Amino acid sequence: MNIALDGKAPWGQVAPEWDDGTPPLVLYRNVSGSYCYTAFRSQELRERLAQKRSNTVSVEYNVFSDFGRTRSYNVRSVDGVLLHDGERVVRDAERFSGEMLMDNFSSHCW
């Protein structure tokens, strides 16, 4: 996924700064002209990804489904840093996710 350490993705500012004044760390990917993203509040992840000096990072998700339909998901790991083991929280990193639909095109992130 692509990295935005300053909270600004291709479509603009994803969210206001957190209470501590830091912008959200945004990981996003292009899906057929639209975007799927996850924004984090984690100083540990921010520092690790800033040191990489790369525009992309590997992200793993846990996807939970019932009868073939996606029920929920969480971020398993970012750049090898384990956040969730299944539904169990390993490292607590405040986050939110979403889609930015562009050009009236609907995508499915999960």
- What percentage of residues falls in helices of 4 or more residues? under 10%
For the record, the count of structural domains works out to 1
Helices, by number, come to 1
Runs with pLDDT <50, length 5+? none
**Spatial strand arrangement across the major sheet:** 1-4-5-11
Overview of the molecule:
By secondary structure, the protein is mainly beta. The chain is built from one helix and eleven strands. It has a four-stranded antiparallel sheet, covered by helices on one side. A three-stranded antiparallel sheet has the order 6-7-8, with no helix packed on it. Strand 2 and strand 3 (12-13) form a beta hairpin. It starts with a strand and ends in a 10-residue tail after the last strand.
Give the SSE layout:
Elements: E1 2-4, E2 8-9, E3 12-13, E4 25-31, E5 34-41, H1 43-52, E6 59-66, E7 69-78, E8 81-82, E9 84-85, E10 88-89, E11 94-100
Antiparallel strand pairs: 1-4, 2-3, 4-5, 5-11, 6-7, 7-8, 9-10
